[in-house]
Design brief:
- With 587 residues, the protein is an alpha/beta fold.
- Helix 2 packs across helix 3, helix 3 crosses helix 4 and helix 5 packs parallel to helix 6.
- The longest helix has 19 residues.
- The radius of gyration is 27 Å and the shape is globular.
- The chain starts with a strand and ends with a strand.
Length: 587
């Protein structure tokens, strides 16, 4: 493929997109395993996969299947005349993101532990199509999130304008509402389109008691029917496991008692901001939090532990309450009190990102001890009007299961979130590292502030890249010449592991070859994410973005792998990819 670039008004420069040959390591591996021959048999490929790629369970039949797939793709009818690979075929196989991906696509973790043992892919204000103040509310972003593997959907429910039905909207903003029933029906249809594991609906409830009854008896129960998980006892001593809850819908919100006490004597549909944030000082909210976060665990000073006789007489309370499998709310008192573990029941607590930062500074081990049995949900501060996000690693290093993100946004933090949940086959549940769940003989737990020794090293080699000329217009990166690509590669994780490095710039080349190697020292590899970004160098302006991905280090497949790239919003680019090599070195 040739391209012309205009140089001033008089003439043009012509460039040809040249196909880069296999890197030295690929050539070397091919000739080693073919004993210097020109064709690689299935058995020789199997030996390469076992010895170089670390794929110990590969059989000759598996290798034959790969050979057939490559030949069919490369030569169409050639699979009927030979069943061996040339060097170009071998290189094509290694550089195919479909055939040779960097991580697996199967659930590989133990899914029989209680829910509190897992990080869960969690959305915040899941119904918003854009910013937090004026965008439309819709079921479309909910569907997109479920298709991506998100397992926790948040719905803010309010009385509609005539007070006879229920809408979903971001309260006290200009967001246009969507009917609750439409959201629920879409959740039912798409809940298990990408994962069989449970979907948790967190309700931020601003309803009057009669509408609560309507939601419980008419909307939720009739929509989900037998899919709905309703525990036999009101207060669970331990959460069920994701395996037990396959294909189930779980409701999480405050029990109605919280609503009744907080709303007593007030307008049921719109309690005052002052009342809502009466415990701001205790919970670390900022004065600039002008828009209501409407988060259940952060809004009430009511103890949720016992029921009163008066409450049981309220119409519809029992029907509504029976639906709640994961009780939200917090006890009276400050943060220290809220983090106390009740041996007789489990619950969900919500903290804003600022409150978590404060808690991690002063009560870090209490947070971890709480999350060993209970569920902690972290949500973005209310001033993130543009639906931006925050550092997820603070929550994960403290065991927070639900680090809630604005999935309709984009940016590096969302890339990290997407990277974490590529783990475990992308099922939306990632088992927390054992060290976050262990308790020592004297009750001691993991302390994120501790400086740990290096546990292992990761060697990363960036060979080359290709595919941009198929995904982008010829002049997308530069009007006057082919792009000048470079790759940034690094680690996101605990502070001691976080680092970014970059390759040299390869000028005027759509298929850059870097062949550069980096070593990363990891103290907590279990929480480390490999960050990869490709940029196009621009001398006069900000460098152009050319793709990104983020991969869980614990799931990386060793050997030479094809790494697909994604755009800023997390959508996979059709052709752009890198050829890389991963190797773990024990320290």
């Amino acid at each position: 493929m040739a391209g012309s670039y205009r140089m001033c008004m008089c003439f043009t420069r012509k460039f040809k997109v040249t196909k880069a040959g296999p890197p030295h390591d690929v050539n070397e591996a091919f000739f080693k395993y073919t004993d210097g021959g020109t064709h690689m048999s299935a058995e020789q490929l199997r030996r390469f996969l076992v010895e170089v790629q670390g794929d110990g369970g590969v059989s000759t039949a598996d290798a034959e299947k790969i050979v057939d797939q490559v030949l069919q793709k490369m030569h169409h009818i050639a699979k009927f005349t030979r069943r061996t690979l040339t060097l170009d075929d071998f290189h094509h196989y290694l550089f195919s993101a479909d055939l040779n991906p960097p991580i697996g696509d199967q659930v590989r973790q133990d899914m029989t532990k209680p829910l509190s043992h897992y990080f869960i892919y969690t959305g915040h204000n899941s119904y918003l199509t854009g910013n937090q103040l004026s965008s439309d509310c819709s079921d479309v972003p909910i569907i997109k999130a479920l298709k991506r593997g998100v397992r926790v959907i948040e719905l803010d429910i309010w009385p509609n304008s005539t007070k006879d039905n229920v809408d979903v909207l971001h309260g006290r903003t200009l967001t246009a509402p969507v009917e609750l029933i439409r959201c629920l029906k879409s959740i039912k249809e798409y809940a298990f389109s990408s994962s069989p594991y449970p979907v948790i609906i967190t309700l931020e409830d601003h309803l009057t008691p009669d509408l609560q009854v309507k939601v419980a008896q008419v909307m939720i129960t009739e929509t989900f029917g037998g899919m709905l998980y309703c525990p036999e006892c009101e207060c669970l001593e331990e959460f069920p496991s994701p395996e037990e809850l396959k294909y189930r819908i779980i409701i999480s919100t405050k029990p109605p008692k919280e609503y009744l006490k907080a709303e007593g004597g007030k307008d049921k549909g719109n309690k005052s901001r002052k009342d809502k944030d009466s415990d701001d000082d205790t919970w670390g909210k900022e004065p600039l939090d002008l828009v209501s976060d409407q988060e259940d665990g952060d809004v009430s000073d009511t103890d949720t532990s016992e029921d009163s006789d008066g409450e049981s007489q309220q119409p519809g309370v029992s029907a509504y309450k029976r639906l709640i499998a994961i009780h939200a709310g917090k006890p009276k008192g400050g943060l220290k009190e809220a983090l106390k573990v009740d041996p007789n029941k489990v619950r969900r607590l919500s903290l804003s990102e600022q409150a978590l930062e404060k808690a991690s500074e002063n009560h870090g081990t209490d947070v971890i001890r709480f999350t060993q049995k209970n569920v902690l949900r972290v949500y973005p501060k209310g001033t993130r009007f543009n639906s931006s996000n925050y550092k997820p690693l603070i929550g994960w290093t403290h065991g927070a299961q639900m680090v809630a993100f604005n999935m309709q946004g984009y940016g590096r933090y969302l890339w990290l979130m997407n990277g974490m949940f590529r783990s475990n086959g992308g099922c939306g549940f990632v088992k927390k590292p054992d060290f976050l769940m262990k308790e020592g003989p004297h009750g001691e737990v993991f302390n994120p502030k501790t400086k740990f020794p290096v546990k292992k090293s990761l060697k990363v080699k960036v060979y080359m890249g290709d595919g941009w000329h198929l995904d982008f217009k010829q002049t997308h990166f530069d009007s006057y010449s082919p792009p000048d690509f470079y790759t940034r590669v690094g680690i996101a994780g605990v502070p001691g592991d976080a680092i970014m490095k970059k390759t040299k710039i390869k000028e005027d080349n759509w298929t850059p070859v870097w062949d550069e190697e980096f070593i990363f020292l990891l103290t907590v590899p279990e929480l480390a994410l490999l960050r990869i970004e490709v940029h196009e160098y621009d001398m006069s302006e900000k460098d152009d973005f050319a793709g990104q991905t983020c991969l869980p280090v614990s799931e990386l497949r060793s050997g030479i792998r094809a790494v697909p790239l994604f755009d800023r919003k997390g959508e996979k680019l059709n052709s752009s990819r890198l050829l890389m090599r991963f190797e773990f070195l024990q320290d």
